[in-house]
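Entry 12.
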Amino acid sequence: MSQTAGHDLSHLSPAAGRLGMVFARPKGLAVACVIGLAGLGWFVLGLQASNIGWFEALCRPLTSGMLSPAAIAAIALMWGAMTLAMMLPSAAPMILTYAEIADTAARKEEPVVSPFVLAGGYLAVWLGFAAVATLAQIGLTRAALIDPAMATVSGLFSGAIFIGAGAYQFSALKQACLRQCRNPFPFFFTNWSTTPRGVFRLGLRQGVFCLGCCWAMMAVMFAVGVMNVVWMAALGIVMTLEKLGTGQRFSQLLGLVLIGIGGYFVVTGFAAHWPGRTI
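Predicted 3D structure (tokens):
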């Protein structure tokens, strides 16, 4: 890309041998990064989902106010794996955009920074979100809004989360962050850095944009069951589609769907609390 000319890019050390030559190409590294880390996240989630009984027994002390280090670690690992599984695919357009610019530089024998550095900055933001989500889940479990099996026990609580996530789809902050996620090239071209530290910061900033875009949809997992793999996959696909230039109407239609699901949960929640009342 001619627009990258004149920029002094930072160094990516080439590996030895043919395999090293393949992975020295930024686009190859970017693809390996997204597939490898997302696959790792799904693998860990699959292991935990297949041992849900053990997970429930581990988290049961939280309902009585006891803080189990093993339970906290397991929940933190789960949320960390969830960010890899759900958010890395949605970040693929951003990572590949960076890799295309860097790949052009590499073909000109200019030094470039590995996309892994960019992904590291991006993931640092989402791992921070995972830490906050871990604390939130512990608090919700102790408040008896989530059971030890990580399923919600209140339709009203689930409805409130869905309605809040749907309303956020119409907010100016959501749309501003989404625009940055959909078109990262101007951001990279304007803020291009020549050091690994600088590229890591680019990843951090893109992670913040992505967090501003997707945090409410990630919170929906509290409403549908934190270990609900079907909802994980569905939300991951939806968030990826949002960032592929589907337009504001798609985002707002998604908001209406979320609000509609939330309304259903609220109605059923009231019916469960007052079964003799007609709503």
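Annotation: Confidence is low (pLDDT under 50) at residues 1-23. The chain has one domain: 2-273.
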